[in-house]
Amino acid sequence: MRKDYISWDQYFMGVAKLSALRSKDPSTQVGACIINQDKRIVGIGYNGLPHGCSDQEFPWGNEGEFTNTKYPYVVHAEANAILNATNNLKGASIYVTLFPCNECTKLIIQSGIKEIVFESNKYQNSKEHEAAIRMLKASNVSYRQIEVGELCYVNTP
User: Fold this and answer.
1) What's the pTM value of the predicted model, to 2 decimals?
2) Which of 42, 147, 145 has its CA nearest to residue 92?
3) Fewer Cβ atoms within 10 Å of its own Cβ: the N or the C terminal residue of the chain?
């Protein structure tokens, strides 16, 4: 039996990272992959515009007047993964390339997801992050950071 295969964490974060490559956002590409308790993928998503909104007609910038930026229009990867989910998310885990904002955290908690596995946490000093952590602790949703770059060898039969 091979001993150098990737771990479940690497596999599901890899799916999230692959999903992020679909994003048209020039500055931040985020992907998410939701798995059920049987380690089956039940939802994937990336940050992008809602259906029917043309990528060429809406702004992708992050500076200037609010309505001339991406912020009022882009659906986050976590929200897309939840909306794309194929079944009940109670007890599920979400793998996301960037720690969820406070708005996505509300959706994660409300959907029944019980674990967040993330890679990057570049907004960890923001008030949004502080609010997200407060809600996660109150709702007993666990979270952990992983580095996919590290190869995790699994030696189980």
Assistant:
1) 0.91
2) 42
3) C
